[in-house]
Design a protein that fits this description.
heterodimer, A: alpha/beta, Amidase signature (AS) enzymes, 2 domains, B: alpha+beta, Arc Repressor Mutant, subunit A, 3 domains, 9-stranded mixed beta sheet, 39% helix, elongated
């Protein structure tokens, strides 16, 4: 039998639906793969063997009863540990939630279950999704399957690594400043941040409410589209959820035709600080698109240079409030409750012990930025920058269908290299942050290996809000053309684990 | 606790002008909470009406209760406020264990209603209280501190948290500074809260029972020397939970401030607790610097934008304002100011109206509610309407009296029976055999016996002293234990004695 872990999600679903394989066999193959390699990769914080096999059995039973299966029934998935899962631990990579078993499923979790997707377990992440390397996890770093001494990106490094290590064909990430796209770029996988509000945030443990967006991670653009369709759609439990039909992403992923599309290259992303090999692969992608019949122009978005500082005011401000609920009173860690201390002291001791340094740094930043007398200068100004960035996007999209840039300025850096330099770490999200601030849609798709280090480079595609299908149309065409050029998918060049 | 030698109220007012600000929180009577579907019913087992959202579980999100928004708009309209075309919720950030998210979802600089007023009457004089704003927010949970002597957190062994109340919709109504009330300031405060309570009830948005915490008042008060424009430093007396206490708290704070100021002291801006038993306040938390709540717009909720035509629909369907309604009823019922005041004080307007609605004439309805029923309520120390008799039953009693089946004395016995749980008026009449006797043959015997027993009186009547017949009628009434129709008895007496009535 062929190696089931090498199947795409679309192939797996077809094989299960036709009865060529059972969902249980598929799940078991992936559980075996996890058992074999995850000690090295550390993509998972929790593997739900029983739950996965039970879900797979349910799919097989439905098939046996002749019921129609959905397009992802029986396909295994790695879920970022920031979505609640009823009865399965959810930690957000933090000690403060160690041992917490949610009493409810996130809307996204529920939709995955309803689609017959087999959730293998919960993946590692930077604590509360704050970081770009997964080194900020309280449970230790995740290795990049291309080079285990390097970071798999972050915050969703566990999800991207699980894909690149063939531990799962699908994964879920969340993208607040690039946490789906940047891990996708540095692991040679596909990651999509849908339009803000496209995927319900109910049950997504909040980092920055106005920026957080769950989205699909996969090894192919079509798989990402199938997953996108399964998780997107209006949710009355999330007031910011979009009440409109999901754009036709699957259809777009299958088009593989960009003739006549207008593509804008963002002028501001490139130059100093960008790794030459990254820019080289990016320029090749631009030429490839031109060769496919797209019309490529250069576009300037001057406010984008302000995006990073604005982001580091807005996101920590919201985080400082969102993370206030971890007070040892109702769930999670409780430190110092020896009968002599006040509730206030127990809360303080718990937060001191339960949060890692990056989380504390951001809580302090945000608390400061929101404090009376500073609000206008910091949070208020950042919101104005946000408006300027949206206007830049609006102006750009008046002339082009999509914008493109490198996803991240460099390839995967070594674990530890930027751990003590927050500013250097923050720069990893330079190109991805503007889309979070504007709330539009963006994707990272592999565009080759940087010649100097043989590590994956990602091409970022950005589309206007509600036009997520354009990402899939361009991404699908780029993927098909590169695969043809290389003779195989990029991930086949990854070293064996 | 510092003991202050209070200045008399009169002396305080001779030198100082009080300025008040009243903040009233009203728990809305919606079926579900402000941001989730949990029940708001009172009295449930602790922590039985909770869900991930109102417990602040990681990942849970709020959704605005449309019924609460409607209530807020109606309150705003009834307070003559502008209704925001677009407003947002904001997070008020502070840590407290009974607040699940450690921020309260409230409104900050964009309240749903603003710039209104409420007219109140004190001693027949109308006083306009300007309303700064009315905004929506959620209630906190409830802490119980166990093991200490006072029930406060200080000295307690441990605390219990009940989150059933967490997330119940609140409307906070804030007045502009109330100036110019002078010595009437405490009464204006009381009248304002009373009027607001009436209004809230008339709107049907809350029962506004202060003793249940459904309506809570903070009294902010400062004094300034008479003639000075600038306001003095204020104290904030929290959770004053009855109308009487509102008046007393204001009065006490006027006297306390005056005492401090007249000795050359300064008022500390602080929270104060009101003590119901002594009518005094004591210092709570000193606000050394203004607490920084780090307000910012709530990113988990979309703005609330009440459509203008909907607002106008709500405006058109507002009930009559309580003050105007009272005035109308007073005229319709033909009552003096004093009588109307007694009706109000007894809380009898609604039962009287309901009794009228059930078919009784207004004067009869008022007579029973303000008479026998008010007397019994007083005696037993219960609320007038808490007695086990319905307006429909009172109306039935009125009808029985009107048709002559009962007289007033019998009617009082029927009321007693109903209150004793012996059934409705007709059942009590039947069971106790209370019907008025107007059957001539039965009465005739009694009349003949009365005449026979009182020959002297009978002769006087025969000789034309008709007034003397009263003694015979009385004798018959006594013999029939009050059940006779007195008018008919008199007719029969005169007829038997051959006298024209």
């Amino acid at each position: 039998m062929a190696d089931l872990t090498r199947y795409t999600a679309a192939e797996t679903a077809a094989a299960v639906a036709s009865g060529d394989v059972s969902a249980v066999e598929v799940a078991q193959a992936h559980l075996d793969r996890i058992a074999a390699v995850d000690e090295k990769v550390h993509a998972f914080l929790h593997v739900d063997t029983e739950g996965a096999l039970a879900a797979a059995r349910a799919v097989d039973d439905r098939r046996a009863r002749g019921e129609e299966l959905g397009p992802l029934a029986g396909v295994p998935l790695a879920l970022k540990d920031v979505f609640t899962t009823k009865g399965v631990p959810t930690t957000c990579g933090s000690k403060i939630l160690e041992g917490w078993v949610p009493p409810y499923d996130a809307t996204l979790t529920r939709r995955l279950k309803e689609a017959g997707v087999v959730i293998l377990g919960k993946t590692n992440m930077d604590e509360f999704a704050m970081g770009s390397s997964t080194e900020n996890s309280a449970y230790g770093p995740t290795g990049n399957p291309w080079d285990l001494s390097r970071i798999p990106g972050g915050s969703g490094g566990g999800s991207s690594a699980a894909l690149a290590a063939f531990e799962a064909p699908l994964a879920i990430g969340t993208d607040t400043g690039g946490s789906i796209r940047q891990p996708g770029a540095v692991t040679g996988t596909v990651g999509v941040k849908p339009t803000y509000g496209a995927v319900s945030r109910y049950g997504l443990v909040a980092f920055s409410s106005s920026l957080d967006q769950g989205g699909p991670c996969a090894r192919t653009v079509l798989d990402a589209a199938l997953l996108h369709e399964a998780i997107a759609g209006h949710d009355p439990l999330d007031s910011t959820s979009i009440d409109a039909p999901v754009p036709p992403v699957v259809e777009a992923a299958r088009m593989r035709d960009v003739r006549g599309m207008r593509v804008g290259v963002v002028k501001e992303f490139g130059g100093e600080g960008y790794q030459p090999g990254v820019m080289q692969r990016f320029h090749e992608a631009v030429e490839l698109l031109r060769g496919l019949g797209a019309e490529v122009v250069e576009v300037s978005c001057p406010s984008f240079t302000l995006a990073l500082p604005a982001y580091y005011l807005i996101a920590p401000s919201e985080a400082s409030s969102n993370l206030a609920r971890f007070d040892a009173m109702r769930y999670g860690l409780r430190v110092g409750d020896d009968g002599t201390r006040s509730a206030e002291d127990v809360t303080a001791l718990t937060r001191e012990a339960g949060f890692g340094p990056e989380v504390k740094r951001r809580i302090m930043l945000g608390t400061y930025a929101l404090s009376s007398g500073y609000y206008d200068a910091y949070y208020g100004s950042a919101q104005k920058v946000r408006t300027l960035i949206s206007r830049d996007f609006d102006a750009a999209f008046a002339g082009v269908d999509v914008l493109i840039s490198p996803t991240t300025p460099t390839t995967a850096f070594p674990i530890g290299e930027r751990a003590d330099d927050p500013m250097a770490m923050y720069l990893a999200d330079l190109c991805t942050i503007p889309s979070n601030l504007a709330g539009n849609a963006a994707m990272s798709v592999p565009c080759g290996l940087a010649p100097e280090d043989n590590l994956p480079v990602g091409l970022q595609i950005i589309a206007p809000a509600m036009a997520d299908d354009r990402l899939y149309r361009v991404g699908g065409a780029v993927e098909a053309a590169f695969t043809e050029k290389w003779g195989h998918p990029l991930l086949e060049e990854a070293p064996a684990l | 606790m510092s003991v202050v030698n209070l200045v008399s109220f009169e002396d305080a007012l001779a030198s100082y002008d009080p300025v008040m600000g009243l903040e009233v929180h009203v728990e809305l009577g919606t079926a579900t909470k402000m941001f989730c579907g949990c029940s708001t019913a009172l009295g449930a087992e602790p922590n039985s009406q909770v869900c991930p959202t109102c417990l602040g579980m990681p990942g849970a999100l709020p959704v605005v209760n449309a019924a609460a928004v409607e209530s807020a708009v109606r309150i705003g309209l009834a307070l003559n406020c502008e209704i925001a075309e677009w407003c947002r919720f904001a997070r008020k950030n502070y840590f407290y264990p009974d607040m699940p998210k450690n921020f309260q979802t409230s409104q900050y600089d964009e309240p749903i209603a603003f710039d209104g007023h409420l007219d109140v009457e004190v001693d027949g004089e109308v006083f306009r209280v300007d309303i700064e704003r009315a905004h929506m927010e959620e209630d906190t949970g409830k802490s119980s501190h166990i093991g200490g002597a006072t029930g406060r957190i200080h000295g307690a062994e441990y605390s219990l948290l009940d989150y059933n109340r967490a997330g119940i919709p609140l409307i906070e109504i804030v007045t502009k500074p109330i100036t110019g009330a002078g010595a009437k300031a405490p009464e204006v405060a009381k009248a304002y809260v009373a009027e607001l309570r009436e209004l809230i009830r008339a709107l049907g948005v809350s029962e506004a029972r202060m003793e249940m915490g459904q309506m809570r008042c903070d009294v902010n008060l400062s004094l300034r020397p008479i003639g000075q424009e600038k306001f003095g430093t204020r104290s904030e007396t929290k959770n004053v939970n009855s109308l009487r206490s509102v008046e007393r708290a204001a009065r006490f704070e006027i006297q306390r401030h005056a005492a401090v100021l007249s000795e050359g002291g300064t008022i500390v801006q602080e929270t104060r607790h009101f003590h119901e038993d002594e009518g005094t306040t004591t210092s709570g938390r000193v606000k050394e610097e203004a607490e920084d709540y780090r307000y910012f717009p709530e990113p988990d909720l979309v703005p609330v934008a009440p459509a203008r035509d909907w607002v106008e629909e709500l405006r058109a369907s507002l009930p009559e304002l309580p003050r105007l309604r009272r005035r109308r009823l007073q005229q319709e019922w033909g009552l003096s100011d004093k009588d109307m005041q007694s009706v109000l004080n007894a809380g009898a307007i609604e039962p009287i109206l309901e009794t009228v609605a059930a078919g009784a004439p207004a004067d009869q309805a008022r007579k029973w509610w303000m008479g026998e029923l008010a007397r019994r309520a007083n005696e037993s120390g219960t609320d007038l309407t808490a007695q086990p008799i319905t307006p429909a039953q009172v109306a039935r009693i009125c009808a029985l009296v009107a048709e002559g089946s009962l007289n007033d004395k019998l009617a009082r016995q029927v009321i007693e029976g109903v209150l004793n749980g012996e059934g409705g008026p007709d059942e009590v009449v039947a069971a106790r055999g209370l019907a008025v006797v107007s059957d001539d043959s039965a009465l005739g015997t009694a009349v003949d016996e009365a005449i026979a027993a009182n020959p002297g009186v009978a002769d006087k009547v025969r000789s034309g002293k008709v007034a003397a017949a009263g003694a015979l009628v009385g004798a018959v009434m006594k013999a029939t234990r009050g059940q006779a129709d007195a008018a008919r008895v008199k007719e029969l007496v005169l007829e038997r004695l051959g006298v024209e009535g």
